Every structure is written in C-alpha cells, then in structure tokens.
C-alpha cells in the first residue's frame, strides 16, 4: 500500500513536493509559536531551533560550498536571518525547515559565486599598472562594503 502511494505521488498526484510530506497544521502552529518566542528573545526557544536545524543546515551548505568552514558561516548567517525575520514570521508562509534550507542554499550559492573571481593580471593588454591598481582598489572597496552591510548596527 505504501509503495503504491509513493508511486502515485512520484507521478505528480497528491500533495507531495520537494521530497517531504506537507507539514501538519498542528506542527505549523507549534513552529509559529516557537518563532514568536524567539522574536521575544526567549533563549530556550532559540536553543531548540538551533539544535533541531544546525546539523542539517551545515550539511546542506557544505554540499553546495564544498567547504566545512564556509558551511558553518552559512549556517550562522541563516540563523541571523531568522532572528531578523522572527518578528514578521507568518504562520501561513513556508515551514521553518524549508525556509531555513532555502536561505542556506542561497547564501551558499552566493559564496560559491564570490570565489569564482578572476584575478587581475598586470600583463593584460591595454591596461596600465595604474589601471590595475584602480581596479583592484575598487574590487576591495566593494568587498569591504558587502561585509560592512552584513554587520549588525
């Protein structure tokens, strides 16, 4: 019986997406209440969320970035985004797990893209040494600006 249900769902029938069954309403209510407690700076609620999701977030980010240290940074940034969003969390939005993983994947992709920079070569035709310095300084300024934007007020 269970096998035929999976086959039907795999064909696109039923309410099945992303490899996970829909989250029951009572779990969404409990999740929304937990996030509301986080918005009120409840350390126990925060600890519970981190304990539930940290390992999976690191694994997801590690898979995308290929770097354990980057994955841990991504997980941390994901949780910081949750803190910022907690006050405005909507119970009818995506389940917490899905939201956290989407944020982690997006952050991981951004980090992977950032690593694909092309080094400036001073021997590039048509560029004077001063031009290379200006381009380098500009890239550094943009990178520092991106980091500064991520710092808390």
Helices, by number, come to 6
Secondary structure tally: strands: 0
Catalogue the unreliable spans: 1-18
Radius of gyration: 21 Å
Mean of residue pLDDT values: 77
- Terminal-residue CA separation: 55 Å
Briefly note the structural class of the backbone.
mainly alpha
Helix content: over 70%
Strand content: under 5%
The biggest sheet amounts to: none
Order of helices and strands: HHHHHH
Keywords:
about 150 residues; about 70% helix
Give the SSE map.
Layout: H1 2-10, H2 25-39, H3 43-65, H4 68-86, H5 96-115, H6 129-150
Helix pairs in contact: 2-3, 2-4, 3-4, 3-5, 4-5
Please summarize what this structure is.
The protein is mainly α and 153 residues long. It has 6 helices and no strands.
């Amino acid at each position: 019986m269970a096998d035929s249900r999976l086959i039907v769902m795999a064909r696109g029938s039923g309410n099945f997406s992303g490899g996970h069954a829909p989250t029951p309403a009572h779990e969404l209510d409990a999740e929304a209440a937990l996030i509301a407690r986080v918005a009120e700076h409840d350390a126990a609620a925060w600890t519970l969320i981190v304990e539930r999701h940290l390992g999976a977030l690191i694994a997801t980010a590690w898979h995308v970035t290929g770097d354990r240290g980057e994955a841990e940074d991504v997980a941390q940034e994901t949780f910081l985004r949750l803190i910022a969003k907690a006050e405005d969390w909507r119970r009818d939005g995506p389940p917490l797990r899905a939201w956290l993983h989407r944020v982690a994947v997006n952050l991981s992709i951004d980090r992977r893209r950032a690593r694909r920079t092309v080094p400036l070569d001073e021997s590039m035709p048509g560029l004077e040494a001063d031009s290379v310095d200006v381009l380098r300084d500009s890239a550094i300024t943009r990178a520092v600006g991106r980091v500064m934007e991520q710092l808390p007020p």
